[in-house]
Amino acid sequence: MVSRGDFLQTSAMAGALIAQNPVSPGKLKMRWFGGGVYELATLDDRAIVLVDAWLWNNTGWTAFNAAKPPELASAAAYATHLESRNPQAVFVALTHDHGDHMGDYFELLPALVAAGLPVMTGGQSDLFRVGLVPKFKAANLDMATLVVNKGAGMNFGGHAAHGAIEAHLVPAVHSTALAYPAAGFVLDVAGTRVYASGDTDLFGDMAMIGSRYRPHIAVLSTGNGAFTMGPGDAAQACALLKAPHAVPVHYAHNALVLGTNCGDLFRAAVAKVSPHTAVTVMRPGETVTLA
Fold first, then answer.
1. Assigned domain for 17 exists
2. What are the average pLDDT values for consecutive 10-residue runs of the chain, which has 291 residues?
3. Residue 153 CB coordination number (10 Å)
């Protein structure tokens, strides 16, 4: 019998393994940084994932009248904060290249490397192998050691592992600045699987993502307006994914998306169309434990 560890060495088999062998999730910490940006971590901080990198310039705090904490004041401050938590693996998952997702990315990465943190990053392969190469060079960052899969990133269906973190790249329906595809992730953080939708519209293959990867938690863009699905569509996404737990993000950070009531609108919509899904609504800066 082939062990789970053996399967994980082969990215082509990783999705099938998840579908055939669902694991019991543990507990995971989530901290929302506003907009579509957030951090996932094991309770002991052994594994930390940052989904996108728009931190000190993030405008998602104002509408909530929330003060940004000192560890989010700069790249150096956040690097020092992460260093104090002594992680064994830090993964920065980049969904796409819009400013409200990668606006602080090329300040953050050099700071994490300079702090000696065990950091890797990744996203859609063409974005990394072509689109972002000049920016990595300008930042004096070695893509072969910093970007997963020896600098290649991932394509849809592709897989990468870093410590206790596994990342699978899945599609998203959204625009990008450089015209490379937008993406979402299924992130397995020490056995708890999170579907990180990134910015996306509702699309039918979310059902396939649900059946293939069986995420325990779905973190969904819900802000509507000009850019992504709104609360009702995101609730439909929960139904397609058959997600046991969901968290709404990507709202109240600019004038073209829904405001601070979006989370409650999402909760109400989920209760109607996907009543099996528990909903956690957050405030920027808040840390919750998701079980």
1. no
2. 34 42 72 98 98 97 97 98 98 97 98 98 98 98 98 96 98 96 97 97 98 98 93 98 97 95 98 98 97 80
3. 24
In a domain, 176, yes or no: yes
| DSSP class per residue in 152-221 | T-B-TT-EEEETTEEEEEEE-----SSSSPPEEEEEEETTEEEEE--S----TTHHHHHHHH--SEEEEE
Amino acid type, 262: C
Q: What is the CATH number of the domain that holds 118?
A: 3.60.15.10
Domain contains 290: no
Q: How many separate domains does the chain show?
A: 1
DSSP state of 33: -
pTM: 0.92
What is the domain extent for residue 154?
Answer: 26-285
